[in-house]
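Structure in, sequence out. Go:
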């Protein structure tokens, strides 16, 4: 398992040491079920906003509650390892809740990032981050690229009548 994949407790301790050295932390989250070019561009942009990029991923149970019983396509550990393999990602932490609020409260990132398809006022954790002196940012959404659309294309490709 990658050294980048951490528990919330371990990651919180690690970031205390990194912040003592002046590092700034950016946090984003998602299911990241099938990694695609939209995710890559998004994560690269997020990483440029601070010194350390932490990516929170929904646990398998959380993904099922949010996306339905056929998801995730890839199990949590695989999704975490794939993200950890990206140069722009410094740490990966998973969470069981439907939102990452507990992770955000624990890590207190300097920058909280979501895609521009989210209005800033709806971003979970905004109050926590802004209350700690951090900021919330949105990144341009890559139009027409999503995991759900990708899964639909794969399914259609496998049907001779499609």
């Amino acid at each position: 398992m990658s050294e980048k994949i951490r528990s919330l407790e371990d990651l919180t301790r690690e970031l205390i040491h990194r912040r003592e050295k002046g590092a700034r932390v950016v946090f984003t989250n998602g299911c990241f079920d099938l990694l695609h070019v939209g995710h890559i561009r998004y994560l690269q942009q997020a990483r440029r906003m601070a010194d350390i990029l932490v990516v929170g991923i929904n646990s398998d149970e959380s993904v099922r509650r949010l996306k339905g019983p056929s998801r995730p396509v890839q199990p949590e550990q695989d999704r975490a390892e794939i993200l950890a393999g990206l140069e722009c990602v410094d740490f990966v932490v998973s969470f069981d809740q439907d939102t990452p609020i507990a992770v955000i409260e624990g890590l207190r990132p300097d920058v909280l990032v979501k895609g521009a398809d989210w209005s800033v006022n709806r971003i979970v954790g905004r109050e926590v981050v802004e209350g700690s002196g951090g900021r919330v940012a949105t990144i341009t959404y890559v139009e027409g690229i999503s995991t759900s659309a990708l899964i639909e294309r794969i399914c259609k490709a496998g049907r001779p009548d499609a």
